[in-house]
Amino acid sequence: MSSLTSVELNFLVFRYLHESGFIHSAFTLGYEAGIHKSNFDGNMVPPGALIKFVQKGLQYMEMEANLSNNEVDIDEDFSFFQPLDLISKDVKELQDMLRERKRKERDREKERDRSKENDKEVEREHEADRNRARERDRHEKQKEREREREKIEREKEREREKIEREKEREREKIERESFERERDRLKLEKEREMEREREREKIEREKSQEKQLGDADRDMVIDQSDKENAAELEHSRATEPMDIVMPATSQTSHIPSSDVRILEGHTSEVCACAWSPSASLLASGSGDATARIWSIPEGSFKSGLHTGRSINALILKHAKGKSSEKSKDVTTLDWNGEGTLLATGSCDGQARIWTSNGDLISTLSKHKGPIFSLKWNKKGDYLLTGSVDRTAVVWDVKAEEWKQQFEFHSGPTLDVDWRNNVSFATSSTDSMIYLCKIGETRPVKVFAGHQGEVNCVKWDPTGTLLASCSDDSTAKIWNIKQNSFVHDLREHAKEIYTIRWSPTGQGTNNPNKQLTLASASFDSTVKLWDAELGKMLCSFNGHREPVYSLAFSPNGEYIASGSLDRSIHIWSIKEGKIVKTYTGNGGIFEVCWNKEGTKIAACFADNSVCVLDFRM
């Protein structure tokens, strides 16, 4: 018996449901089975067809089960009928139909068997061969397509790598050119500063000759000079009440040579210096591809010689042999909180970690350009570096490997500063400031507002306020809870190179003193700001050239500033005047206080480092 189609079965069930009174079920089945769309003729099906069909099927199964082996023909006859034939015809009619069909089928079968018996086996073999051939062809074509795809992918990958290499070379070229331009600019500034120094020396010589005049002439010159200074001071007070102008040179304010130690040994300009937070050790970094750790005697210098020859120094070489490659310039350095490790960054893009005994323990390589800034977190387990390659990298110091690289800036990264042990701020030539966090792939916060390169960023002692300064001649104070700056500090006339928070207020050793911010500018001034109100408290106008560095004393009562005019001025914030001053033989790039506040170190463009005794 041939199979009952789904359309026929659906119709039988539909008719059964309809006849049994299941009208809703019949409608649902008819709708879902699409019975009204079929070309099946329902008039051929008598009432109760499904029941009859089931009954006759049971009868057929009963007959089949009771047939003997010699009645096989009858069993085969029933296999030729359609289901509706079994329902609509009686047994005699079925037997007549069966005999007629069987006779015709036997005749056709005999004819087919005679003509095709031999061909079947051959055809089966041929078909098997064709199938095997088709399968082989399919596999070969599949393999060929796979090889072609792999070839195309390899070519695409090579092309992508080639394009990426080209882009990387172009970026490196741009960064090298940017760095070389900056170096040339600094060189030009240095040459100009030397020219100005020669001019000042000429003026000094002329003044020295004037001092050889008689007593009357000298008194007249001094009297005239005093009048001019008094007039200038009076004019300054009338036009800018908050300005603090350096008074006429006073012999009492000059730091005597007995209170100075000149540390000699570097063979190129000294760019950075930093005191150890736990010992009387001073680190310095130079363009001669070395850093040095100087052991500074404690106590006053007056008890001994003041030349640098008696002070021991450990030399931390960044280049092999006697080479002083410019790519090895030491640009930045920082001690960890315990004073046991010193980190240095250089123009070769590598950060190095040294012990306080001068032993190199780690060389950290990831950057593709000079490192301009480098900071330890307070815990001392991570080191943060910022580079000309536009990225900042957090290093796992214990594992001696990079933990995460942050690639957000579109220009060289100029400064970095930790907010806490896991988050930090970065600034760049692209005028943007990003707040980043270890583990995050996007900036936690973006501070946009500057219109020029952002040279420096510093968090206040509580990690709530961030100060920034820029080539746009402004400094800004940002709050972590706001998206825009809180205060816009606009009193400077030229680029602001650096800023520092006072070690006062909440979160410091001087909690009862007011929190202030100091800024140093190319307009030759240092300005002090009220951090809460964003107002200028005073302007220190004693320098004659750009001010590159400043530092608060640990008690927050004094500010030391260093300028290209070769002078270090120490200002009393309370008295509003210079209390000490020292003039060296080159421009000053950085100044810093020791932890006791009794000594000030400064690094000079004439390859020297000076340490000054400070006691009031």
UniProtKB/TrEMBL annotation:
It is found in: Nucleus. Residues 106-221 have a biased composition (Basic and acidic residues). CDD domains: WD40 (cd00200). InterPro entries: Ebi-like, LisH, WD40/YVTN_repeat-like_dom_sf, WD40_PAC1, WD40_repeat_CS, WD40_repeat_dom_sf, WD40_rpt. Residues 101-221 are annotated as: Disordered. The keyword Secreted does not apply. Keywords: Nucleus, Repeat, Transcription, Transcription regulation, WD repeat. GO terms for cellular component: nucleus. WD repeats lie at residues 263-296, 323-354, 364-405, 447-488, 489-539, 540-581. The keyword Zinc does not apply. It comes from the Eukaryota. This is WD40 repeat-containing protein HOS15. It comes from Cardamine amara subsp. amara.
